[in-house]
Structure formats: C-alpha cells, structure tokens
Amino acid sequence: MALLSSFIAIPTSPYFGAHTPCRIPRQIWSAASSAQDNVLLQRSAEAADRSAGHTAPHPNFGCVIAASGEVVGEGFLYAQGTKCAELQAVEAAKELARGATAYLNMEPGDCYGDETPVSSLVQAGISRVVVGIRNPLGHLRGKAINALRNEGIQVEVVGEELPSKKMEMALKSCLVVNAPLLYRAAFRVPFSVLKYAMTLDVDGQCLPFCDSGKIAASSGDASWVSSKLSRGRVFELRGRSDAIVVGGNTVRRDDPRLTARNGGYHVPARVVMSKSLNLPEEANLWNTDNAYTIVATQRGARKDFQEKLAKKGVEVVEFDMLNPRDVMEYCYSRGYLSILWECGGELAAPAIASGVIHKVYAFIAPKIIGGRGAPSPVGELGMIQMSQALDLIDVSREVLDVKNAFLHGDLEEEIGPDILISGFLQPIPDMSPVIPSIDETAVLDPTVSPFESKIIFFYKTWDPFGAFSNFSPHFIWLPDETGDSFLWPTVEHYYQAQKFMGIDKPLAKDFIQQIKRARSPEEAARIGRKVQKERSELVHPDWEEMKVDVMHRGLRCKFSIHPHLNSLLRSTVGFILVEASAHDLFWGGGREGEGLNYMGRLLMHVRSEILQEAAADSML
C-alpha cells in the first residue's frame, strides 16, 4: 500500500452526536484526498466483483475500511443471505475501524429489516462513509444513507458531496460492477451481453460489426474460432450470467453444452429460441442433469415435440409471437439480472434491433477462412450507410496472448493471440429509474396476470417484500438430524436438508452436512435439488407428502422469532400473497396465474395463525 500511504490524509470531522450529519466543506476537499478516495472507492468496487461466478448473480456490494490512507479491512457480499460486506470489513479492521473511513461501491440495502450493514459501521465507530452510487431500487434508495447520517456519521456520495469529475475512475468502476442491476432497474429487462468469436476476414480496419468477419466456415463448422484462453474468458462470462441464449441454428450445427465449467459454482440456465421447434430429437441441451434448459417457441409449435422435451426435464415456454424483447421480459419475470447471448448472426441482429443487447464482447482470432457464404456475427440490420453504424461506448481492447496466459495460469496449447474488443451499445442508465415503491403492491411483476384486485407479489430477496422468500437472510431454530435444536441460516437450508432426514445411509448424512455448511441459500438449494434428481434413493420416501408441512414449520419459526417480520406479515392483512415465480408451478404463481402458489398460500396460513394467537392473547 505504498501508493496509498503517500497521500495526505484529511482528518475527519468530529462526532457531533445523533441526527447531526458531519460533512467536509467542499472547498477543503483537496486533490490529495480526491486521489485517495478515488483509489479506495475503486478498490471497494473490485472487492464487490469478487463474488461473480460463485452463486446466482445478485447486487454486488464491497466495503473497504481505511485509516490514514491505509486499508485495514475489506469484505464483499458473497451472496444474498450471507454475511454483509460491511460486517466482514469491520471484523477484519477490529479496533482500527474507530475513526476510520468506509468506502462502499453502492449504498447498502438488502432484505426487509436487515440493518446489519448500517449497524456494523455505527458500532465500529466509523466516522466517514464514501458511497459510489445510491441504491437504484426505489424502496431502498437513500434509506441506508439517511440512517448513517442520523447516527452522526459523515456520508459523502459521488456526484453529490464529492465531485464526480474528480472521482471519475471510481464512479465508473461502481457503475460497471452493478451494471446488471442498473439496466434491469431502468429498462425492466435483464442486462444482456452479446458475445461472439470471429476470424480476421476483414477489408481495412477490424471493426466488431464488420460484415467480413466470420464466426464459422461456409459449412457451418465453428470449432474452434478462438483460442483456449479466449474460451476460458467465455466460461467466466457464463459464470456471471443467469442464463445463456442461443437460437435453433446453434443447436442444430454445434450441439453445444453451454456450461460454465467454473468448478461447481453457479450454473446458468440455457435458453433456446426457436419459432418452429425444428430441433434435433437428441441434443446436449436436453440433458438437464447439471444445467436447466428453457425452450422459447411460438404458440402451438410441434406439440408432440414439446411433450418429449418436457419428459426430459426441459421447460417449454410459448409466446404469441416469438421475439427477443418478449423473451427478455419473461427472463425479467424470473428475476434474472444478466443474460449472455451466444447466438448466431440471424438471432443477434433482431436482438440488437429490439434494443435488448447492452454490451458486446467480440473475440477476434488471427485467422482467415474466407467463403462467400460463411456466416457473420450479426445479420441484416437494414443499414446501408456507414453513418448508420452503431458505435460502442467505453470501448476496451485486450490482446489475449502468452503474457495474459501467465496471469490466468493457462499455458496449454492454442493460446492465441486473440484480440478482445468490448464496449457498451447503450450507456449505463442514470440513477433515477422508475421502480415500484413498497406501497405499490400489485405491479411488481408485469407478466403475472392478477386475478384479484389486492395482490402482493414477492420473489427476489431484494424486492420490497423479499423477506417473504425462503432465501431471505433470516435464521431459524429447528431440530437437525440429531434431534437437537440447530441454527439454520435460512429456511431454504432447513427445507433442503429435510429431504434426506431419516435416511440411514452415510451419503445422505454427508449431504445434510454439505447443506448445513452451504455459504448461501442458493448453494443449499443447488445441492438439495441435484441430489434429489440424481440420487432419489437418498430422499425420504414420503417427501412429496411431507414437503408442504416442512416448509410450513420453517416459515412458522421464521415469522415467530423475528418480530419485524411478524409485523410485516401482519401488515398484509386483506392482500393475496403470490410468489411471482414464472417457472415454479407448485410453490409459485406461474407465468399467467396457472401455478398452485403454495408458498403464498402457506404465508397466508401462517398470517392467520399469528392473528388468531394475537386475538387469543388479547382476551387473557
């Protein structure tokens, strides 16, 4: 940290007591403090990015604590429901946190009633907090900042108290690390990245949208256009995504697997878009043992083939008119943040034209294959003049060669050098997106058809009513396999472990321990679902009859031991509760209200039990 220690530290303002915000006057905010804040805030964004690929994409939070310009603690949110970045940083800093400055890439905000990010900083004695961007979600925006200021902590936000021009590099890092959340919040579709690899068949300069670059030979063969190092980068992109989109041509020609190959962490879903369902009977994507597959098609297409896919575990979703925007709106309804498009040019062109592609990654290989009929990365866009070309914003160029291979630990054959050009097609949205407030209870998911006038939808933990999810970061005390009371991190941990309770086999007990140790509810769910599918002999024989009661016990405990959750549930009297899951037709409400909504029904049942008990107590 020699670079940081060379900066001149500006003393923080004294503590004036609660409800008295303390701020450094703008005129004494020197170039030295500007450079120091820039570096440290950028480091918090880099810390936030460290969770990518470990679990389902989610808002990324990082915290760096510095005293006199030296980093004394840092942390990042591994996943929703795990220890927050602020608490990790405070625990690392220990007594050095008192009087120090905390750098947050984004204003904290998680599930309802979780005040840990704010209370951790307050109790540690942090005197100043620098925030990169406010939380873009309307029900969380400004909440943590106001709470910190009410505790007498000096809070400075880039673009408000801190001039954005002098903090440009740090601000850019904070925006990019949460670009998926920002795009989703502003445009109500997931953040979409178009990736392709092409040869150097160009006339003149190499441009990402040049018609001469080829993504395959004229025969359709595309193995392999890019180097092994480039393919490793693609696996990283997949690990950061909720889903990967391809078209029917890709399935027919390449028979891809579309797996992340990231060491057993988050596995994205695979989405195939095909109007006619003219797809092969057998394909790698129809194997759903390790990754989920969704086929999006036009209503009425090949009903017999749809049934065959369903029997293989593939989800088929019909659209009146299949197009990229409707498919992205459907992915939005599933709670997806980030989508990777690995399609051919015929699908890439309408996706770009419909405005759902936000960023491009073009891997350019030093190869020439020729061929008048060889496919290009982007099909017809209707542009006839160069002035109509789409310009990338914030363009980055990188040579993927042996030097970079050392950095990535890959010295095997097919190193490169490839050139990676990336950039945004649309600017990162501003910080004032239109998001439903906590009082708007009926339109959190526009794709669900409400059949009642008073409905509260819930799904992701960062939604206004996210605390109703069994993935929310609220522990419960219930017996484990030994019969003793155990602190389960979330209801999902408890629910998944119950599948293997009572099975007198060492492997079943081992899986219970794996679920107990799972660092996030997503990981617990992934373990439980995978074992249930692959090793059915380890699942309790009466599980299908038991699972509703098991979930009820978990929810009953959760809303009994957390008073603020109890109050939240009671406040929904008169409202129908619906889990806005478009794909889970048992626990969720389904895409068009066709789901059984057992999660919502159980919550309403628990609500009735709580109200009845309260009424009985009042009679005593």
UniProtKB/TrEMBL annotation:
All residue ranges annotated as the CMP/dCMP-type deaminase domain in the record: 35-156
UniProt enzyme class: oxidoreductase
Gene Ontology molecular functions: 5-amino-6-(5-phosphoribosylamino)uracil reductase activity; diaminohydroxyphosphoribosylaminopyrimidine deaminase activity
Annotated keywords: Multifunctional enzyme, NADP, Oxidoreductase
EC number of the protein: 1.1.1.193
UniProt pathway: Cofactor biosynthesis; riboflavin biosynthesis; 5-amino-6-(D-ribitylamino)uracil from GTP: step 3/4
GO annotation, biological process: riboflavin biosynthetic process
Matches recorded under PANTHER family: 2,5-DIAMINO-6-RIBOSYLAMINO-4(3H)-PYRIMIDINONE 5'-PHOSPHATE REDUCTASE, DIHYDROFOLATE REDUCTASE FAMILY PROTEIN (AFU_ORTHOLOGUE AFUA_8G06820)
Protein's UniProt name: 5-amino-6-(5-phosphoribosylamino)uracil reductase
